[in-house]
Design goal:
The protein is mostly helical. 64% of the residues lie in helices and 0% in strands. It has 15 helices and no strands. Helix 5 packs parallel to helix 7 and helix 13 runs antiparallel to helix 14.
Length: 258
């Protein structure tokens, strides 16, 4: 019996699986250090994979999650792994950040989004982060509309639809134009027609009406715009195209004679 006791002393007791482990004392570097001067060089030379790797590595050090911090050595192994882990790192860092740090992170990511050279892969990673943040009951940006715009830019259509629908309200009809454009692109005609009735001005975009096969309404807009700008041949072309779909040969003949 005594020998068994001596043997067992060499081993730690198995921890209770449902008991949260005590958190180690992290150095907790300032979040703003994650997007300091060293990040500008990557943006300047348009090395977006390098930017995402450096940015993610810096953010990992600000996380209080043991699992996230343990992933640091693996980040250099695969760009795909970096992109897939990025949303969860954002959520982890946000959870322990101060209001000032959160605002700083949000503002910095907006500058990346509005940089016209930002790659589609980076925009996709940020759009995924917006989605992960929303599902964690956080908001990466103050206005949900910004999340919709970044998702739209990287062609994440259904994610964009969700964010634009969330930001649509009686006081803000701006997302309705984005919703109409995406629904038209996805051939979701009923949803687009509903938006046209409640929120879209009738002189908005004849091209979208064409996409929805609303030839008569599109032609009316082309006609008005052509009279306003007779030198713009695209309006005349649009008018003739719509007239052809409507098989209104009389209007086409008259337009050619004029």
């Amino acid at each position: 019996h005594n020998q068994d006791d001596l043997f067992l002393k060499d081993f730690e007791s198995t921890p209770y699986v449902h008991q949260s482990p005590s958190k180690p004392p992290y150095p907790n570097p300032k979040l703003k250090a994650a997007f300091s001067e060293q990040m500008k060089s990557f943006v300047t030379v348009k090395d977006w994979p390098g930017w995402l790797l450096q940015f993610t590595q810096s953010l990992v050090l600000c996380s209080h999650s043991p699992a996230i911090r343990a992933s640091s050595p693996l980040l250099r192994q695969s760009p795909t792994f970096v992109s897939e882990l990025f949303p969860y790192i954002i959520v982890s860092v946000w959870d322990n950040a101060t209001n000032e740090e959160r605002k700083s992170l949000s503002t910095y990511l907006l500058t990346i989004i509005y940089n016209q050279t930002t790659s589609n892969e980076i925009l996709s990673a940020i759009a995924a982060a917006c989605d992960a943040m929303d599902r964690a009951n956080f908001a990466l940006f103050e206005h949900t509309y910004e999340c919709g715009k970044v998702a739209e830019r990287c062609n994440s259509w259904f994610r964009a639809l969700r964010f634009f629908e969330m930001s649509l309200s009686e006081k803000n009809f701006e997302p309705a134009s984005n919703l109409l454009r995406i629904n038209a692109l996805l051939k979701q005609k009923e949803a687009a027609l509903g938006l046209l009735k409640i929120a879209i001005p009738q002189d908005s975009n004849p091209g979208l009406l064409e996409t929805l096969s609303m030839w008569s309404q599109a032609r009316d807009i082309y006609k008005i715009k052509y009279h306003q700008s007779p030198k713009n041949e695209s309006y005349l072309t649009g008018f003739l195209k719509c007239s052809m779909h409507l098989e209104d040969w009389e209007s086409i003949e008259k337009c050619i004679e004029d």
